[in-house]
Automatic annotation (TrEMBL):
GO terms for molecular function: lyase activity; oxidoreductase activity. It comes from Oscillatoria acuminata PCC 6304. Keywords: Antenna complex, Lyase, Phycobilisome. InterPro entries: ARM-like, ARM-type_fold, PBS_lyase_HEAT. This is PBS lyase HEAT-like repeat protein. It holds the Pfam family HEAT_2. One of its GO terms (cellular component) is phycobilisome.
Length: 217
């Protein structure tokens, strides 16, 4: 059986689902197939008024990774806010540099804390090896500057995500130690002492300690 023949019944099951529960089940089965043929249907699910279906769509797109990025980005302008937020979550987990500008803007400016949180942590997931070398250093510094801004977010869950993003970014640049790496470590050290929420202080302390162990002297 060809891949197309195998995926067609799964797509049809999504299209013919007559309840929210059956739709969600059908989408999870489609997501588990990990077929590029499923991408349009998985993206469409992001706009359904059904969180379970949207989660299945997101997870399916994350599992597919890079092939899902361009279709997602092309659809963004046509999405309503809810679908756009789900798409952002998928792009944040995939980590493709083509989604970087969206993550930067969302982490700093989106009105929904859960979406800012996803974007901030996603900034630590970027697959920098997939970006042109001559663009990489400038983009990494831009991520650092954005995460410093996000560390001031009024919502602790977003600040927590910014700490996670900072650790991911720092880990990615350890080998060449840019000028802003030490200020980044200082930001984490300060946050470990000064944040009003214990869980953020603890996460910043963990990141600071782990990076100190691995940072070249």
């Amino acid at each position: 059986m060809t891949e197309n023949a195998g995926i067609t019944p799964l797509i049809k099951a999504v299209e013919e689902a007559d309840s929210a529960e059956r739709l969600t089940i059908a989408l999870w089965k489609l997501a588990q197939a990990r077929s590029p043929e499923a991408i349009p249907t998985l993206i469409e699910a992001l706009g359904f008024n059904n969180p379970g279906a949207a989660v299945a769509g997101v997870e399916g797109l994350i599992a597919l990774g890079e092939p899902a990025v361009v279709p997602l980005l092309k659809q963004l302008d046509g999405f309503n806010y809810g679908a756009r937020a789900w798409a952002l979550r998928a792009l944040a987990k995939i980590g493709d540099p083509r989604g970087l500008e969206l993550l930067l803007d969302t982490a700093a400016h989106d009105f929904a804390l859960s979406v800012r949180r996803a974007a901030a942590s996603g900034l630590g997931n970027i697959l920098w090896e997939n970006m042109e070398p001559e663009e990489r250093a400038t983009a990494q510094e831009k991520v650092y500057q954005t995460l410093v801004e996000v560390l001031q977010d009024p919502e602790w869950v977003v600040r927590y995500a910014a700490v996670v993003g900072m650790q991911g970014l720092a880990t990615a640049v350890l080998s060449h130690s840019p000028a802003w790496l030490e200020p980044l470590l200082n930001q984490l050290g300060d946050r470990a002492k000064s944040d009003e929420e214990l869980v953020v202080r603890a996460r910043a302390q963990l990141a600071y300690q782990q990076l100190q162990i691995t940072t070249p002297a």
